[in-house]
Structure formats: C-alpha cells, structure tokens
Amino acid sequence: MENKIITTQLKALLLETRRVLELADGLHREAGLSRGKVSLNDYLSDYHQRNLACRRGGSYDSMIRNMEKHLRQCLGSDFAALSVSEINTALCKRFASYLKQAVKKTGEPLSQVSAHHYFSAFRTMLGEAVADGLLTDNPATRLRKQELPKRPMVMKTYLDAGEVARLAITDCRSEVVKRAFMFSCLTGLRLSDIRRLRWQDIEKEGDCWRFSIIMQKTQEPLQAKLSSEARRWLGDPQREKVFPLPVNSTLSRILRQWTAAAGIAKNVTFHTARHSYATMALSAGADIYTISKLLGHRSINTTTVYAAVVDTQRDAAVDSVSSLLRQHLDEMTESLLQTTPFPS
Predict the structure, then answer these.
(1) pTM across the whole model
(2) Has residue 232 got a pLDDT over 70?
(3) 209 pLDDT higher than 70
(4) Whole-number Å distance between alpha carbons of 30 and 87
C-alpha cells in the first residue's frame, strides 16, 4: 500500500515537472519571436551550450565547432552581421557548395564524410531555430539531393560470428570490458548507451527480458528484447550501472590487447560491436527495416550500408561455391584422363 502511494506521488511530481518544462519552453519560444533578430553568432554560442548541457557527447560538440568554423570561412565578412532569420535557401546552397570544395589546413580537400556531417549539423541547427521560433521553416531541407555534399558509402569494420565467438572464449584483462563488448555485439547498443545502462532499464515481462532506454545520441526511446545469450553477459547487479567501464583511452587499449590475443588483425573499436550486430543479424536473414529499428536509426538510409557489407559476403559465398565446383570438376577430369584409354 505504501509503495502504491509513493508511486502515485512520483507520477504526480513528474506530471507537474512536465507542465513546468512545457511552460518554460513556450516562454522561451515566445521570447525568441519577440527578440526579432538574433545574430547567428549568438545563436551558435547558445546552441553549442545547449548541446553540451543536455544532448550529445564530445564528438557532436566537436562537429558543431567544425561546422561553425567552415561556416565562418564560407560567409567571410557577411557572418558577423547575419541574423538567424536571414538564413535562406540561397545561403544554404552557398554553404553546401563551399563544403564540396573546402580544404583543410594541410591543403588537402575536406573529406566527403566530413562535408556531409558538417552540413547535417548545420541543417539540424536550423531545425532547432525553427523550434525556437526564429525561422518559419528549415531552408536547408529545400535543397535538392544533387546540391548536397555527397554522402559516401563507407565500408565499416565488423566482426563475423566466428570472430565474435573467438573473443567470447579468449581471456580479457578487464572482465567488465569483455562483458560490455559482447553485450553490444548481441544488442547493437552504442558505447554511450552501454555506459549509461542501469539495472532499472532492464525488465522481465513473463518469460521475456527487455531493455528500455533513451539513446544519448538522438534522445529517442529504444526498447528491444534481450536474448538469452545477451543476458549471459550482464553480470550480477552489484552497482547501479550495469557496465562501470574505464575511460575511453584505457578501454581502447584493452580492446586492442584482447582482439590481438584472439588472433583478430582488424582495427577493432567499441563501435565495431554495433556494426557486427547489424551484419550478423542481416546475414541471419533479418530485413533492413527491422535492423534499422533495432539500432534506433532515424532513417533507413543509415542502415543500408550494412546491406552492402552482407552483399559482399554473399558475393564471396557465390565465388567460393563456384571455386569448389571447379576444383571438383578439375579433379574428375584429371581422373577420367588417367583411366580412359586413348586409341592407338
């Protein structure tokens, strides 16, 4: 009875908190409209701080900084006087065109991957400006596909089922790193979400175990079933967090030592586990749409790169069957030549 009262009180508190946040958000948006012109420089500074405070990790923060650097170079003297409300389709085209031809400090051309990511960050920022009432719509979304920085097809490093199995039976000097990596291979969770996973995020519904989280990168909810093999790597609930991992530098060093001990020569990072989960699932027959949902991708286009990897595997399988058949045909032909008498 007492637990029910506490639960009801917590629900009431959460509801009241939500109302306060909605009110504050509404006032914030109204303030944005009433301010009229907000300089792009000021808005970028505010956007940067907001992302640091509540949205994403250091890699996204770095992307915003690089996007801003290239935007300043693209606009030159126009940047200082530009307000957010003045950003239009022409300016978006100008920035996209600049990124396609931009060069780094070394004089080398900016990679297609970087150009694509920087424009995506720019488009996301303009989407936030729409939500803040500074733009009526997002002009970056009006660009045609051929006007955007091309998104290259990158073949991601992954482990096949045999390599994952080898890691499972290979000793690792950190038990928690091994558990976390294997768990990611079986769920596809990102490192950021593995670090934040708590025991209370895992629930049993009848005979089925599930995890339910808010992904750090996208702030979107993700819920999925936990297989019996994935549950095996959870360990015992001794702390609030399921995987109390070391800092990234230590984690990377342990991974390199562990994969080397398993005889795996690939450049394995923790994110390789996520790629491995996707390719193993596709190889096992899961469709792209399902994998996209399991990985928490916003767009199915993000998932299609794994299909290319699996297609490569299928091509290799076709070639191997052909080679095997050719080997047997050659052996049979040689045998026939040895046993068949030639006319004198």
Answers:
(1) 0.58
(2) yes
(3) yes
(4) 20
pLDDT digits (tens, 9 = 90+) for 279-336: 888 877 777 777 777 777 777 666 666 665 555 554 554 454 445 555 656 676 676 6
Q: What is the 3-state secondary structure (H, E, C) of the chain?
A: CHHHHHHHHHHHHHHHHHHHHHHHHHHHHHHHHHHCCCEHHHHHHHHHHHHHHHCCCHHHHHHHHHHHHHHHHHHCCHHHHCEHHHCCHHHHHHHHHHHHHCECCCCCECCHHHHHHHHHHHHHHHHHHHHCCCCCCCHHHHCCHHHCCCCCCCCCCCCCHHHHHHHHCCCCCCHHHHHHHHHHHHHCCCHHHHHHCEHHHEEEECCEEEEEEECCCCCCEEEEEECHHHHHCCCCCCCCECCCCCCHHHHHHHHHHHHHHCCCCCCCCCHHHHHHHHHHHHHCCCCHHHHHHHHCCCCHHHCHHHHHHHHHHHHHHHHHHHHHHHHHHHHHHHHHHHHCCCCC
pLDDT digits (tens, 9 = 90+) for 239-292: 889 999 999 899 999 999 999 999 999 999 999 998 888 888 887 777 777 777
